[in-house]
Structures are given as C-alpha cells and as structure tokens.
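Hi support team,

I submitted a single chain yesterday and got back a structure, but I'm not sure I'm reading the token output correctly. Could someone confirm the output below corresponds to the sequence I sent? I've pasted both exactly as they appear in my results page.

Thanks,
R.
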Amino acid sequence: MGMRRFFKNLIWRYRIKGSSISSFDLIVPTRRTGMNDEILFLISEGLYELPEITGISRTVRPGDRVLELGAGLGIISAFAARAAGPTGKVRSYEANPVLIQDTRAFLASNMIDSVDLVNAILVAEEDPHPRHLHLAGSFAESSLLGAEGRNPQGTVEVPAASLFAVLADFRPDVLICDIEGAEVELLPALPPSSLRAAVVELHPDRLTPTQIQSIHDGMSAQGLHRQEPSPGGTVEIYSRSSRP
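Hi R., thanks for writing in. Yes, this is the structure output for that exact sequence:
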C-alpha cells in the first residue's frame, strides 16, 4: 500500500470513530440503521450520491415543491429542502420502515423542518394495496424487484399510495427518484402533471435496455426530456426545457 493511501485510510478510520461526521454541510450520524463501512467512506469523502446532489443543484429552485421517492438516510431529502428554501416543501416516500425513525431524527438534528417523510411506496394504481419490499444486506439495495444476490434479509409489507393521487394533491415541481429499479413501474405510467424537471437514478443492473428506454419514452411523452451533460453515474435529469 502506498503512503498516500495509507494515510488516507488512517484519516478515514479516525474520522468515523466519533458518533457523527460533518459532511456536505450536514451532521451525519455514523451509528444508525442503514450505515455500513462503504456508505460511511463515501459520506466522509463527499462522494455519497454526488450525481443526485448535482442534479438537485441544477433543478431545484427556491419555493419549489419536491417529490422524493426513496428517502433512504435523508441526505438527499436535506439537500432538496435546502435548495427549495424556507418557502419550498419536500414530500419524501421511503418504503423501508426500519429507516424512518432515524431519518426523521437526522433531519430534525440538522434543522430541516420542511420535509414530510412518509413510510409508503407510490404505485401506478388508483386503488393501491400494500406491497412487499425485499430487504437486502444494505438498505440501498432493498427493492420491490427482489434482493437475489444482494444478501437477502426477507420481506416486509409496506403501505402503498397512488402516484396519480399524490401528483394531483401535492403538485410537485421536481421529482427525485431512486427506488432500485421500481422506476420502471412508475415512470412510463407518469400522467400529465405539474413537473418541471426530474432527477432519476436508473438501475441498469436490474433493468433491461428495453425497460430503460421505456422510461426515457415515458418521460418524453410528458414533455420531460433528457438533459446534457448528465450529472454522472446512472443519474439522468429530465426537463421541459434545455435549462432545468
């Protein structure tokens, strides 16, 4: 191991000995449900969900109403709330019930009070029934599509809400979506809405090229077109204009 890498690893180990990390101008707890060494390292290096953070900086404006699918640890929720400012509003849906309490505590500890965190999933149905979330070894890999090959941890029944009803009621300006492949069920069925832009993490490890193309086509059908340059990784920005 080179000396530079040795000292980098030493610094990282030192930084995560405490109960929290200061990163992204947020205080992130290191000992909570959903954390593992890989996630802690990415957070400590300022790399965690960086393409989504870039997407938020390019799309969310002060006063926006932001609909987030897949709140996870709440870091993206916090960024969206800060970008939308005191007159904006974020409604975040998270399927995994184990994450909810700690994510609410994280948002409160960082004085983020404009996020409405809901333990449910959105589905493209008018009268939805509960669905089963397949839990994986890492919270970030739990999915409605299954957890095969991802250290399966069983399933949990999750409340479901209608995508159509939420869009009509909340009238979001921006959609943020990271739901481990389940985007293929929602986005091709997206109805006409108030959306100006969307930041979507696609999952080519779970979806076929044809399925991913169906997402692009569904977004385009609503007037939301892929923007260049991409924010990175497998994240895409869709917008009604050449400038989100």
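A quick pointer for reading it: The chain has eight helices and 13 strands. Let us know if anything else looks off.

Best,
Support desk
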